[in-house]
Specification:
five-stranded antiparallel β-sheet, 3 helices, alpha+beta
Length: 117
Amino acid sequence: MKLYKKVFLTLSGAGMLTACASDTSYQGIVIEKKEYKIFLDADKDGIVDHAFQGLNYGSTHRLMYAYIMPGDTVVWEPGNSFKGPYHPRNIKTVNGLTQDEISNLVRVRKSYYGKIR
């Protein structure tokens, strides 16, 4: 019984610690997109705060660039890529959709409707 209590308390404590872990993601609104770059405003002042470039490398990134429009919300996690903090791989979601979901959505919409949005 003592072992059961220790295991239960240890596992519940570990669960509480992981639940309290802070999320290091950032959020911004797309102000402009051009030449396979997107420019984001993180503090809602209308001035560009961050820029992601290299959205022309790889089919997933090209499809994501085609999907993104000014006014969309982008959530990213800086620093988890060897290419730098603003590499397209660091983008977690666009309007709540992951990169894979966006790729599938764009492919289906292009084949069915002939347009993305």
